[in-house]
Amino acid sequence: MNFMRPLFTLRQVLLVPLALAALASTPVFAQPPMYIQQAPPPMRAEMMPAPRPGYAWDNGHWRWDGRGYVWAPGHWQPMRHGHRWMPGHWQARGPNWYWIEGHWVR
Question: InterPro entries of this UniProt entry (predicted)?
Fold first, then answer.
């Protein structure tokens, strides 16, 4: 018998935290639409960067943080073959406003 052999291999020691993290993760669910009674501020002028192959530019927009509007700067969206990017936007519904998420359309 070899008493000097380690009880656990390095691989087993590294896999335990990974397995626990996988079990502790929670799935992300779509949130129901949030209706805001205050209209968003006017759009900010934002410089669109030079075209980037394989990506579509998603303009910056105002987002609601629970207390007020905060600016979310524009960013690149990886392209989907045969689709075009429909940017998100605020839409009025009666006296309320709600956010329509940006998405890809065929």
Answer: YXWGXW_rpt
The total of other beta-carbon atoms located within 10 Å of residue 62's CB is: 19
| Domain extent listing, the chain | 53-105
CB atoms within 10 A of CB 48: 9
**Three-class SS state of 48:** coil
Closest to 96 in 3D by CA, of 32, 41, 37: 37
Q: What is the rounded CA–CA span in Å between residue 102 and residue 46? A: 17
Widest CA span in the chain: 80
CB-CB contact of 60 with 74 (8 Å): yes
- Predicted confidence pLDDT, tens digits, the chain (106 residues): 556 666 666 666 555 655 545 544 444 445 566 789 999 999 999 998 999 999 999 999 999 999 999 999 999 999 999 999 999 999 999 999 999 999 999 9
